[in-house]
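User: Last request for today: this protein with nicotinamide-adenine-dinucleotide, please.
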Amino acid sequence: MRFAGKVAVVTGAASGIGKAAVLKLAGEGAHVFAADIDEAGGRALAEQSNGKISFIRCDVTVPADIEALMNAAAAKAGGIDIVFNNAAAGGDRAPIDEITPEGWDRTMDLVLKSVAMGIRYAAPHMKGRKGASIVNTASVAALGAGYSPIAYAVAKAGVLHLSKVAATDLAQYGIRVNAICPGFINTNIFTASLDVPGELKTQANAVIAEMSANAQPVARGGQPEDIANAVAYLASEESSFMTGTHLLVDGGLTIGQRHAWDKETPGIFDALLAMEEATKAGSPA
Ligand SMILES: NC(=O)c1ccc[n+]([C@@H]2O[C@H](COP(=O)([O-])OP(=O)(O)OC[C@H]3O[C@@H](n4cnc5c(N)ncnc54)[C@H](O)[C@@H]3O)[C@@H](O)[C@H]2O)c1
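Assistant: Here's the final one, the structure of the complex with nicotinamide-adenine-dinucleotide:
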């Protein structure tokens, strides 16, 4: 019961990573304010919680919604102890030579500004709370190309840097700020972000689950609970010497090229050796 008596706020709480974090924090004693635009999902979560979870409708692209969420959570016990700024979706999928200014702004609002405003409106309620901790969801997409569309990747890189710099602003108040970079996690985000018709979503999710099991050195798909465990760690006193940094929870996805861990896949080095052999034999490939 690491969070007994604590008040926590989680955004994007009705599904996937957010939902798993809500259940983890509430399961270890916190009262959790679960925020989402999905009212049916959020209410269902609260109803099964024996009063440990309160659902609040909040669109994280609307700063007034975030302010109202943080005020409501703070009213419960005179402040907020834990905030998990997690809500997002895939954003605009256009490449850099095609994206519109509107698509770029929409993605930044949803993925980056939402986190900045989450910190902005939570921090005044966290000052002086012992063990106050803010955790933000970034992504492996913040660390390199090829994991997501460009606007999302840039916004997530912004979440990483925001987490560092906000940690310095808030250190004087005893508030820690960290980020998590999830790898390929089995949630609805992919089908929510792709144009997949409703009736095909279950089928598409099954294909994604199969892909995710083989995407990284750890031979299983990433689960929302893998990230919720990291959230709980960063929210708890066990990580009290960590601030302004991130945890990479990706099953090894970002270690490097696939051939480094999948010996069936030829690597660049193997190709060079083969070329050397072929050259020595007088027949360059
Ligand atoms: N699943 C992955 O592989 C993965 C990898 C890296 C990062 N992430 C990040 O993890 C976080 C959670 O995503 P997930 O995978 O659990 O997806 P998900 O689609 O299962 O859950 C996202 C939740 O956010 C909510 N949401 C969307 N827009 C919102 C808004 N404007 N205001 C409030 N709530 C909103 C949705 O209703 C949904 O409940 C996101 O920040 C995502 O970018 C996911």
